[in-house]
Amino acid sequence: MAEVQAVKELDTVRLISHLLERRCSKQMSHIWNIGINLALRISDLLSVKFSDINNGRLILKEGKTGKRAEIKLNAKTMILINDIQLSHPNHIFLFQSYRNNKSLYVPPKPLTRRAVSQAFELIGEELNIRLGTHSMRKTRGYHLYKKTKDITRVMKMLRHSSEGVTLRYIGLTQDVIDRDFVELEL
């Protein structure tokens, strides 16, 4: 699997959302927009249930690390979640698969990681960028770092334990090194 990257241009972030809705579905666009705002791993994002959201907060246990994530939801995310809930009042999962809606005997399931990956790869190919499900998390981290220059805040948001890992993760290591060589003339 090729390593995916953060989307560094905000216009491209918006274009990806638009293309996902046009080429794939509104649900894929919602995944992109909510995923960028929550900075969760795709497995955790897809497992979110409406019952995990209370008083403007999402509380869940991360599958990979077992760490508790408590995320205050911003206005855009709340609007999107409310839109999904109004459109699908009987759904249990935020991103529930529509495939089993017709069967009364099959328990509800979230959308699969594979389906999301395929949609993102399709748009990535169209835009000639390495886009994948992890791009949402990396994009959030990159833009928080760009805004604050505070790697500790980014580490806490992503629940990482090392600055080096976080810098590599959001794709800044080579950018920072290149800029240092160009800007520092002795």
TrEMBL record:
Tyr recombinase domain sequence ranges: 2-182
Superkingdom of this protein's organism: Bacteria
Alphabetically ordered keywords of this record: DNA integration, DNA recombination
Alphabetized PROSITE patterns for the sequence: TYR_RECOMBINASE (PS51898)
Entry-linked InterPro entries: DNA_brk_join_enz, Integrase-like_cat_sf, Integrase_catalytic, Tyrosine_recombinase_XerCD
Pfam families: Phage_integrase
Signal peptide (residue range): none
Gene3D superfamilies, alphabetized: Intergrase catalytic core
Keyword Kinase on entry: no
Name the UniProt record assigns to this protein: Tyrosine-type recombinase/integrase
Organism: Thalassotalea castellviae
Lineage: Bacteria, Pseudomonadati, Pseudomonadota, Gammaproteobacteria, Alteromonadales
